[in-house]
Amino acid sequence: MNFNLKNVSVVISAFFLSSYSGYLSAADLLNANEQQQLNQINQAYQSQYQATRIDDKNNQLNELNANVESAKIKLVNNFDIVSTDTQALQSKIQQGEFDQQLSEHLRQVAQTIANLKQQVSSSLAQIDVLEREISDSRSEIIQLDRTKSDALVELYDDIKQRYIRSAQQVYNDDYQGQLQCDVTESISVCVNRNLSSMRNAFMLSKGGLDRVKLTQFKVVDATQKLSGDLVYSVSASYQLVYSPNIEMELRKTLGLDKIRFVLRSNSSDTVFYIGDERIGSGETVNVSGDYVGLYNVKAVNNGKVQSLRLTLENDGDYYFPFSNPGHSKSSATTAKRTNVTQSERKARPVTSKTSGSSTTAAVTHSQPKTVQIQPTHVDQSGKVIEPEPVVTTSATQQDAEKSASVKPLSGSYSNQVLYKDPSFTFILPQSSNADGKTPAALSFAQAKQYCEEKLSSRLLSKAGFQYINLYVDIPQGNYWMSDGKLYSSERHDEVAKDSNNNQFVCMVNLTK
């Protein structure tokens, strides 16, 4: 027999398409009344969610935090200006001169510092209010989620019962189909060879192989043309099966594929992990997600670890107690960028101490001495900690004079803007070579000279790197900081010096 492969391919294609798409559509799973109920539940939730204004509040909070960080950078920059100009004014006074213009400039800088302090204080006060409001809004949203989930579960149970009742009924139907047989074979031979395909075609027409269970399938008539085409009629009885696949697709359509549960501890310092993913910290953490199967849930508290293998369930409550739990909290953390979702956008304040650049100036006395201005700090509340001058021996001055003799820059350089805000432009110098452009690597003195002479700017401080790291990915490598130490863009922190030539970023002040 020469079986028609073209006809087989059509049947097989129809089989795969229908078996996978027969129950994926919401229109196939839900009737009109059920679809209307689902729309009403979703619309009610969306309306109540928008009423909390949590997204607007999070946007405002992020903007305020960015303003605070920018103001802190400006404070550090202005303290550097004060240090430099004060030393210059002091030197002129000691020479019997008084620079009125320089004095007036210092007065303006002092006013700028006062305004920046007020800006930081005002923004922090607004942040405190917003964080409380956002916390309240999140509590409201958690309750909205539970209300919506309860309504969806109730709808799911009703639909499931409809499917179960339908599965208990037996349906009778007549069906007509067509086959292409070889002209040399009889009708009975062709029908018997293709009986399985005929059954599948009927089941696909009723919703899919997973949804139909045949109780009777009888060919009652068949007619074959001279071309070999065969038309047949079938009398069939069947039941609609409520299969695990249908249940899974139904839960997915209703948005019930995610489960919600709570992780609890007796310490606010507890950090929770599911697998290797950090979920949250505190005494209570609400979690939702697509968690199917066994998971390793871990709670860590001041070096103590509790770990359990759990099958996470909807509305589950999992408690991890610790004996003598610690409540110490780190006084400073380094700000890092986070992935932001629509309803859980979080503020990212830099709470680490912010250090500025240091400058060295010679003061005329009976014996040459050097006054080194220590790095300026801005603490978590936005309060500026004034620098204390430290008098060192003239050896430091000799080192400074030695570093002043800088090797001339050679080669071709270009500048890439890493990030720009209303007050500063952060520039990454690049060198050109046969392989293209790569971040320029120079000695500390050369890097400082490049920023000052070519861009009228200064090297970036650690606080500056932490600031721009909130918004952009800094290319891999070690970078000179304004104090001559190194910052690693991979570790997001200070690292030990292992090379005399390193990359650097120049900070251009746009407000001068």
Question: How would you explain this protein's 3D organization?
Answer:
There is one protein chain. This protein has helices at 5-21, 26-29, 32-51, 54-94, 100-167, 187-193, 195-205, 244-254, 394-404, 444-455, 462-468, and strands spanning 171-180, 212-224, 229-240, 259-265, 271-274, 277-281, 284-289, 294-301, 304-311, 316-320, 360-363, 369-373, 377-378, 384-385, 389-392, 413-420, 424-433, 436-439, 458-459, 478-480, 486-488, 493-495, 503-504, 506-509. The protein has four domains: 5-30 and 169-247, no CATH class; 49-162 and 353-404, no CATH class; 263-341, Sandwich (Immunoglobulin-like); 413-509, Mannose-Binding Protein A, Chain A (Roll). Helices cover 41% and strands 26% of the residues. The chain has eleven helices and 24 strands. By secondary structure, it is α+β, with helices and mostly antiparallel strands. α1 runs parallel beside α7 (195-205), α3 runs antiparallel to α5 and α4 runs antiparallel to α5.
Structure described in brief:
With about 500 residues, the chain is α+β, with helices and mostly antiparallel strands. The protein is about 40% helix and about 25% strand. Strands 16, 17, 18, 19 and 24 form a five-stranded antiparallel beta sheet that branches. It has a four-stranded antiparallel beta sheet with strand order 6-5-8-9, with no helix packed on it.
Low-confidence stretches: 1-24, 327-404
Q: Give me the secondary-structure category.
A: alpha+beta
Count of domain modules: 4
* Helical stretch tally: 11
* Radius of gyration based on Cα positions: 36 Å
Mean pLDDT: 77
Distance between the termini: 92 Å
Shape verdict: elongated
Helix content: 40-55%
Taken as a percent bin, the fraction of beta residues is 25-35%
Task: Tell me the major beta sheet.
Answer: 5 strands, antiparallel
User: What is the total tally of β strands?
Assistant: 24
